[in-house]
Write a structure and sequence with these properties.
Blueprint lengths: L1 H19 L2
Length: 22
């Protein structure tokens, strides 16, 4: 399940970047 956790992290990071403009 490590791959799934990594995928979720990437998605969350992308959303945060869209909202927060990293």
């Amino acid at each position: 399940m490590q791959g799934l956790e990594h995928l979720v992290n990437r998605v969350l990071h992308s959303i945060l970047c869209e909202v927060d403009n990293c």
